[in-house]
Amino acid sequence: MRFTSETSFDGISEQLFTLDGVPGVLWTPEGAAGTRPLVLMGHGGGQHKKAPGILARAHRLVAECDFAVVAVDVPGHGDRPKNEEYDRIATENQARVAAGEEPAPLIAGFQALVARRTVPEWRTVLDAVQRLGHVGAGPVGYWGVSLGCGLGVPFVAAEPRVRAAVLGLGGASASAEDAARITVPVEFLVQWDDERVPRAQSLALFDAFASAEKTLHANSGKHGDIPAFELDSMLRFFARHLG
Amino acid sequence: MRFTSETSFDGISEQLFTLDGVPGVLWTPEGAAGTRPLVLMGHGGGQHKKAPGILARAHRLVAECDFAVVAVDVPGHGDRPKNEEYDRIATENQARVAAGEEPAPLIAGFQALVARRTVPEWRTVLDAVQRLGHVGAGPVGYWGVSLGCGLGVPFVAAEPRVRAAVLGLGGASASAEDAARITVPVEFLVQWDDERVPRAQSLALFDAFASAEKTLHANSGKHGDIPAFELDSMLRFFARHLG
Questions:
Q1: Which of B203, B216, B220 sits opposite A214 (nearest CB)?
Q2: pTM of the full predicted structure?
Q3: Where are the domains of chain A?
Q4: Which among A242, A139, A145 has a CA at the least distance from the CA of A188?
Q5: Domain A2-242 indexed as CATH 3.40.50.300
Q6: Mutating which of B215, B222, B232 best tests the A interface, going by the most A Cβ atoms within 10 A?
Q7: Mind listing the pLDDT tens digit for each residue in B44-75?
Q8: Between B32 and which of B28, B89, B163, B207 could a Cys-Cys bridge form, CB atoms 3.0 to 4.6 Å apart?
Q9: Measured at the alpha carbon of residue B151, what is the angle toward residues B147 and B153, in degrees to the nearest 5?
Q10: Which residue in B121, B128, B86, B124 sits closest to B107, CA to CA?
C-alpha cells in the first residue's frame, strides 16, 4: 500500500493510495488515532472513487460518525487503464440491446464478470486499510448502488468482516444466489420508476437476501433520483450497526 | 366537544373527550398555547384510541416535536357500543374465509363500509380540535396502519387539511381509487412476510398513490412486527413535512 498524497479539509483527512495497482482513497477524521468502524463504498458505472455521490456520503460518515471510509476505482474506471475485454463486452451488449434484447440480464452478466476481479481486490483493500493505526480492525460496512450493488452483493456474501450493507438500484438477474448467502442487516434502495432496473427484479433481489433484518426503501423517481433524506437514513443505519 | 378528564404525565397533557357520541383523546405538550401541527392517528382492528402503539407514537410526537395528537375510537371499538351490522358482516366474512374465500377483498370491503362513517367523523374531530387555543389551525398529518390504513386512505383522499400521511399494512383491494386521489407525501409501511396482507396488494396500493414524494419502507417480519426504528422514521417524516 503506497500513499501518494494526503490533504485535509473541514476536519477530514483524505489519503490517496495505490495497492497492487489499484488506485484508492481513504477518508478519516483529521488527527484520528485508534480503531474505528470502516465503510467500503463501491461507485456506480461510469463513475469513480471520488464521484460526488461517494464524496458526499464519505464526508458525512467521517464528520458525523467518526468512521473511516475507503473507495477504490473499479477496473476500467477512474484512474485505471481501459480494459479491452470489458470494453468489447460492453460494445457487444449495446448492440444486443439495440437489437431488442432485455438489458437487465446482460448488465447482470457483465457485473458478475467484473466482480470476479473486484471481490478479491476489495478484500485486499480491507486487509491493508485495517492494518493502519488510525483505522484498525473495527466493524466493517459496505455501501454501493447500481454497479456498486452488482459488485457489492458478491463482495458482501464473500466477506465475513462486513456486518451491515446499504445496497440498491440493482436486480436479481445475476446476484440472487450471492444474495441468499447474505445474512447481515441490509438497507436496500429502490427507485420506484427506475428506467434501468425492472421493479420486479429489484424486489426479487431484496427478497433473496437471507438477512433477518432487511429494510427496503422505495422512493418515487428514476434511477438517479435517490432523495437526499436517504443519505441521512444511511448514516443512522451504519451508526446503529457499526457504531 | 365535551372534555371528560384531563391528566398530565411527563410533560404531556392527555384530555379525554366525546364529540357527537365519539370518544376521543387529545395529547398536547403540558402548558401548550398557540397553534401547532396536529397528527390524527387511526388505530388498528380490535384496538382502540389508547392502544400501546398509538400511545407510544403520540407521546413521542408531543414530547419531541411539540405537536398535538388526536385519536378516536372506530365504531365497534374501545368505548363505543357494539355495532350489530358490522358484527354480522364480520361473522359472515369469517365463515366465507373458512369456506375458502380470499380474505383480502372481504377485509377491504368491510373497511370501505366503516370508512363511510369514519371519514365524516374524523373531519368533524379536526374541525373541533383545531378550534382549541392550544392546537389551532396548523398543518395536519395522518398516521394509521392496518385498519388505520384502510380507513386512512379514504380520509386522506377526502381531507385537504392533511399534508402528509404515514400509512401501511394495507392492500389495494378497495382503496386504490382513493389512493389515486392522494397527492401529499406518503411514507408507506410494508411487512415483507405479512401473513394478512398479500405482498402484491401492498405494493399495488403504494403504486396507486399519486404523490410526487412517496417512500415505501418494507421490513422483514410479519404483520405485527414493525421494527422500532420505523417510529423514529415517522417522527422525522412528520417533522420534515409539518414542522
A1: B220
A2: 0.91
A3: 2-242
A4: A145
A5: no
A6: B215
A7: 999 999 999 999 999 999 999 999 999 999 99
A8: B28
A9: 115
A10: B86
